[in-house]
Amino acid sequence: IPGLFAGNPQPEVNSSLWTLPVEAWCYISIPAFAALGMLVQRRAWMIFGVLLILFWAVILFNRGAISSPVRLTVFFYAGVCLHMYRNSIPASVPLAVGAMALLCGLTALSPLVLDVPGGLFYMAAPVLLSYAVVVAGSMLPFRKINAKNDISYGVYIYGTLLLQCLCALGLGAERLPYAAYLALDLILTFA
């Protein structure tokens, strides 16, 4: 619905939906890799992951930016690699906290080392952040997809749309204290 939120800071109706085509292509690629035998060849995934990150680094250093679809693809395949090596990589809270601390440190150092948007964060996050998210996810109380308590993606989709509606109604962060704006959005999202 073009123009519906033209007065909002972000005029898109539901800006969170842009990821869906990229995600669809990533999921479609899995059967293609299965046909190539890569789902049983763990070493092939490691080589693929390293090559993808190297490709990403080349783009970063040569063009100074990485497109969002490329970023999402690298994160997706980092998760695939973590899954392929799930029996070898421990799900450890201290390691996850350490991964996040390292990521925060690299992000803080990034402006001193690289003069590119995202810099060290985008180079390290696919591995470090993906690991921390997988560890955190493994500790949630549900164990199957579409479980009653699995609200993660719905909150992302509906929460973004509700933020847009609140802004359009004059109840955005520019008029309300940010905590009130966020609380109102969360209450409406979970209602």
Distance between the termini: 24 Å
Figure out the total of helices: 7
| Average pLDDT score | 79
How many beta strands in the DSSP annotation? 0
Structural class: mainly alpha
Describe it for me?
The protein is mainly alpha-helical and 191 residues long. It has helices at 19-35, 42-63, 68-84, 93-113, 119-138, 152-168, 178-190. Helix 4 packs antiparallel against helix 5. The radius of gyration is 19 Å and the shape is globular. The model has no long low-confidence stretch (mean pLDDT 79).
Give a short summary of the structure:
This protein is mainly alpha-helical and 191 residues long. The chain has helices at residues 19-35, 42-63, 68-84, 93-113, 119-138, 152-168, 178-190.
What does the secondary structure layout of this molecule look like, with pairings?
Layout: H1 19-35, H2 42-63, H3 68-84, H4 93-113, H5 119-138, H6 152-168, H7 178-190
Keywords:
191 residues, mainly alpha, 7 helices, globular
